Amino acid sequence: MHNNIDNRQPQPLRGCVTLVTGASRGIGKAIARKLAELGSSVAICGRNLESLEAAAKEITALGRKVYARPANVTNPAEIAALVEATESQLGPISVLVNNAGIGNPGFGPLQEKTEADWDTVFNTNLKGVFLVCRVVAPLMIGRRRGDIINISSLAGKNTFAGGALYCASKWGLQGLTGCMAEDLRQYGIRVSAVCPGSVATEFSGRGPKDGAKVLAPDDVAHAVAMLATQGSQSFISEVHLRPISKPQS
Fold first, then answer.
1. pLDDT, tens digit, for every residue of 95-154?
2. CA dihedral angle for residue 15, residue 37, residue 242, residue 100, rounded to 10 degrees
3. What is the C-alpha to C-alpha distance for residues 164 and 115, in angstroms, rounded to an integer?
4. From CA 131, how far away is CA 126, in angstroms rounded?
5. What amino acid positions are annotated as catalytic residues?
6. DSSP state at residue 12
7. Quick check: helix, strand or coil at residue 134?
8. Where are the beta strands (DSSP E) in 93-156?
9. pLDDT classification of 8: cutoffs 50, 70, 90
């Protein structure tokens, strides 16, 4: 197998297993790739099989073990099967990155939104995180270690016109993350949130983005890597990421 890893570089996650949801493209794929570069075996899931397989090939080319499986984070049975298969194929999950999320139909004036729009956004952005963590957390508790990193958004800290559903889902994720952190820290498990501003991806957001004034997926991946490799006694609970060049509102 062709190996693009420079084994002279530090690999602090060697021996670890990471599960990244929503990792077939964009931020999730960048996170999976980054943690693989740091030595971790990686399991990835997504809803688009073709994109998922392409992402898996990229990570495999780095010389790391990869397990890819289609899964919808809103489906409890698919989540349970994903977690069981990941641990069977790669070993105990050391790091869980809840990245799966959607923008539309979460953008637009509240009065124009439907109940179905609400359910679609919340089932993925908030309930999906709960469903995945509900399966993985007990396994980490049994081992008394682990990292859970939730990809939130600065929209979970701020409000803007047309963002009611999306912001509400991310504000909810902030609360869920904070409470999980308090529930699980006694077991040696760290739960953190990464809150990026606008990122240059195919994510369905509020409109075109100036590439010079937004974050890149690798910027988010760098923050996740920092959390996954922090010292054993430290606990970084939340990271805010902004582009240096401020986008125009």
1. 999 999 999 999 999 999 999 999 999 999 999 999 999 999 999 999 999 999 999 999
2. -70
3. 13
4. 9
5. 166
6. T
7. helix
8. 95-98, 146-151
9. low
What is the b/e burial string over 217-239, where b = at least 16 CB atoms within 10 angstroms of the residue's CB?
bebbbbbbbebbbeeeeeeeebb
E strands, 2-74, are: 17-20, 41-46, 66-70
Distant-in-sequence, close-in-space partners of 123: CB < 8 Å, separation ≥ 6: 74
- The torsion angle over the Cα atoms of residues 79, 84, 85 and 91, rounded to 10 degrees, is 130
CA gap 170, 175 in Å, rounded? 9
**What distances in angstroms separate CA 124 from CA 25, 39, 116, 166, 230, one per listed residue?**
16, 29, 12, 11, 28
- Average pLDDT on 204-224 reads 78
Measured in degrees and rounded to the nearest 5, phi and psi for residue 205 equal: -110, -140
- Which residue in 68, 55, 153, 34 sits closest to 102, CA to CA? 153
DSSP secondary structure string, 148-166? EEEE--GGGT---TT-HHH
pLDDT at 202 over 70: no
Distances from the Cα of 84 to the Cα of 138, 184, 193, 200, 245, angstroms:
13, 21, 25, 33, 43
The reply to whether the predicted model has a pTM over 0.90 is yes
CB of 149 within 8 A of CB of 98?
A: yes
177-189 in b/e burial notation, b at 16+ Cβ within 10 A?
beebbeebeeeeb
Please name the fold of domain 17-241.
Answer: Rossmann fold (3.40.50)
